[in-house]
Design brief:
57% of the residues lie in helices and 15% in strands. By secondary structure, it is an alpha+beta fold. A 6-stranded mixed β-sheet has the order 1-2-6-5-4-3, sandwiched between helices.
Length: 344
Amino acid sequence: MDITIAQRPDQPPAAIAPPREPMVVNCAAYDRHGRRLPGITLDQISDVLAEPDTFVWVGVHEPDEPLLEKLQEEFDLHDLAVEDAHHAHQRPKIEVYGDSLFIAVHTAQEVKCNLAFGETHIFLGRRYLLTVRHGASLSYQPARHRCEREPEMLALGPSYALYAVLDYVVDNFLPITQAFRGELEELEEAIFHQSFDRRTIQRLYELKKELVTLRLAIAPMQDILNQLMRLHPGMVRDEVRVFFRDVFDHATRVKEACDTMGEMLSAAMSVNLAMVTVGQNEVVKKLAGWAGIIAFPTLIASIYGMNFEKMPELGWTLGYPLALVTMFGVSALLFWRLRKSGWL
């Protein structure tokens, strides 16, 4: 039954919350040939698993505790793994719980021109795959549709579906690193072609921080993929291991790109600091040069300003013009010498 709460006329209009993605994004079953079976509900998961030569692929997004308890009941998940999936904020890892694997990976995506990070927790069994997304994480429906277009590959079972998910996660890192590289090139041009700008060094620092976080997300992925390529024979089919090797190569490329750009960012920050120091030195040199030029006329003018009566040059007819010519002449000579030496 739907219940509608009326709003009083004198009350301000309530803020409309943005639509939230449903917790259960997809729940599908597949036969031994990789063909999708008619739609199932969460209550039917255990019944489908009781049939031979079938497997279930479920995707959820930020589930609440009752939903996780329901999934734990249907898939017979370990309590510790379910607890990790509920609280999130887990480090990337792979753990074995009986006849299932628990994998935690970090994800990244661009949200309103800012880089946001999330997590995906994966439960892999002999006949099921469960993905639990938290935070900034794109839906894995493109990976699912890709698998469904290749039923002969999906017939390899949940381990191939796991490959599709991990490949999708790693591939999402590639455009981020490319965007970082483009922004780094723009910042390098700003360092050499502009005067000091606080926003440039601030963006260099922010980019460095995001790059470190991105590296912390991708580096443990190599260890996870390395295990999937070599271990867990009961849950990862031998035919799928070569696909995990391909994902491993992509993860290595992303990590190497992060390492390279990290060094370039450190160098850019050092160069920016050096350019600021050089600019300050140039300003100090110019100030010192002009101070030296002004010092001589100031010295002569200050002597004449002392108002002594017995000064020999006071009685000269050409004393005043000679003093002016001397001041301007010496100042011009100093200006020429300093300009020639690069101080002005």
